[in-house]
Design brief:
283 residues, Rossmann fold, globular
Length: 283
Amino acid sequence: MATVAPAPPATPSPRAQLIHIEVDRRLGHEWDEWNGKPLPSGGDFSAPPGLFFRYAALTLALSSGVVALLLYLIGPRLAGIAPVLPRALWTLLGAAIALKTLWWSLAAASFYSGRNLLPERLLERGPFLQVMNYASLTARLFGRRDWVEHAAIDIYNTLAVRRGRKIGKGELLVLIPRCLSKQALDGVLEIAGRYEVPVFVATRGQLARRVIRERRPRAVVAVACERDMMTGLRDVAGKLPVLGLTMQLPNGPCRDATIDLSQMEKWVQGLVSLSPASSPASR
């Protein structure tokens, strides 16, 4: 009787090396005021893009109003110095308001039309980073900070992905916090392993500026909650292309966070433009 040779054992999926680093900001410092109660919607702050655009418009209007009020109050004194000075300043303010309105309109049109109408230095890697942070400050006054930040990050990512940036697998970094659930962490390592991308976990902060300086990547995929992601984008995105994946916090901040692993893989695959290392085509 012929014997059947046993099938060779399945090759396990490659896993990325997990590198722990120390940075200068405490993990979760943005949640110092948390009272320990469950977060709204189970820690999922998903929000429609229009929420950010409304708060951005309100922020731009408030900033213009504050300047106009100040100019109104000091106008008589300025006129005493030089009669033409108040008129010149009002003209400059009007021009600034017109420019801000034009930029806001082009940013909204870029997102909703599916086509970026401004270069990245004038859009998601330029003024957008400042507007999203100031809009966050405005949203705090109304108790809508996390939702506005989530919408802003989604818009930022959409605009950034449309640039179609392509880099080598050795030029990409994946940065994650230490608060991911085991399932999420395993998923990140499997994805990074398939595409041979290093993963760095920050033990006391969210974005590893030091390792970015040392490794000099051409792009970063970062994972963080909305609050830490806003700080990280402000610190890094103007200097280096970043895609920011926000987390869900079912057990509160800084503990057992979950992420959309399919979205992460889509971004990594799109950036490195390679088939996974475990796929038949790459063997």
